[in-house]
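Page 37, top half.
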Amino acid sequence: MSKQITYRRVQEETSSREGRRVLVDRIWPRGVSKEKARLDEWLKDVAPSTELRRWYGHDPEKFTEFRRRYLKELHDAGHREAVDHLRDLAARHRLTLLTATRDVEHSQAAVLAEWLNSG
């Protein structure tokens, strides 16, 4: 069975086809109430480190290097428990990974979805 992991902005309207909604940002999104977010989980420990996030600054020209560094972080021991939990969720549920980032195609949610769908 093929995995069905998608990603989108947390600010977008929800859909019944999203499955479990998991926020993958380290910081709670500004202006989004917990009720409006309609999350099943907030896995901030799977988000990029503060240092990597600040270095990247959501600059699309840095995305390839951000992706490489972020995937390396996901293999580090500090992310192990959160990554294992996310993989377990992906094995049992349809997932929608959520981020507050405006450019969702150049976000950690996009990297995570691609990574989980390929593995």
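Page 37, bottom half:
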Amino acid sequence: MNPTEKPSLKSLKNRRRRVQLSAADLVRETPLFDSQSLPLSIEPVAAELRLTIWAQQNRDRLLSRLHTYGGVLLRGFQVRDAEDFGAFVAAISTEPMTYSYRSTPRSQVHGKVYTSTEYPADRTIPLHNEMAYARQWPMMLAFHCQQPATEQGETPIADSHRVLAQIPEVIRQEFANRGICYVRNYGDGLDLPWQEVFQTQSRQQVETICHDAQIDFEWWGDDRLRTRQVCQAIATHPHTGKAVWFNQSHLFHISNAGAAQEYLKANFDPICWPRNAYFGDGGEISEEILEAIRAAFAAETVVFPWQAGDVLLLDNMAVAHGRRPFSGPRRVLAGMADPYSAAGGVPDAVAEDVPKLQQEVS
């Protein structure tokens, strides 16, 4: 075009199209660590990009990355408040979940958004998969850091398939064959009351929930409840087909009670301990086995510092999470979604007609 000529309307339209940003141009994707594929970091190129709006427009892409990497750190987006975070979870999931059959103390913040586990700041929460102590669990888990701690307070994560591979074969096979039995006693100041765990004041409703979830129960003492449930130790991920370590044996076992362990052993019969884990046939799980499991988690742990506004999206079966001790104020919210149950609700390890674990772990 001659410099003295005015551009045509057609050329102006073409020029405008060339400078428009595509969905891919709005964000950059990079592994957070050079030597680790977990987590994938997604950051906006320009400021003031609202996470919920971007996620609504890029849902398939985001879920594809989640299934590929297991964990996605969304950093630098605008997340206005707990309501906005809840809207993000709803936008990318099919069914946001209420936190029911609880294991830890949490507070409801807005809708189906909760505080992360409210344990004392000086306590470590070992890595685990959310609700792996049950037969139904969320496939998707999201955390939103509103305020990082002054020191530490990270949420470490680990690839559950790689954790399984780290556990010695003889231990893997024993858990696959025998499953895990969780025994819980509620209330009396030693653990959560049954009213909080089951989110009801009705004994009849508790019994209905237990029947539906195949949880054995008994009432004893002064309004005390004891439950027993046999669950999976190793599960197969429905999207990737990979075998994953998927249980909370090392959390529920009495050896995880810390300083309270000796008090409980000295003053209570084992059947009355707040919680404990056994093999599915009732056999004891040795501390040597539990140490091997904890070592497997330690070998695969990935840690990054929280930044205010971060959202961490996890495939709950593919990736475990925990919490490190911290000092100073810390506020991390949590949301879970997309309930999933193993086929038939019966763990492979206790079903006589299901063959032993055959999948090679690499």
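Margin note: The CA atoms of residues 134 and 231 lie 6 Å apart.
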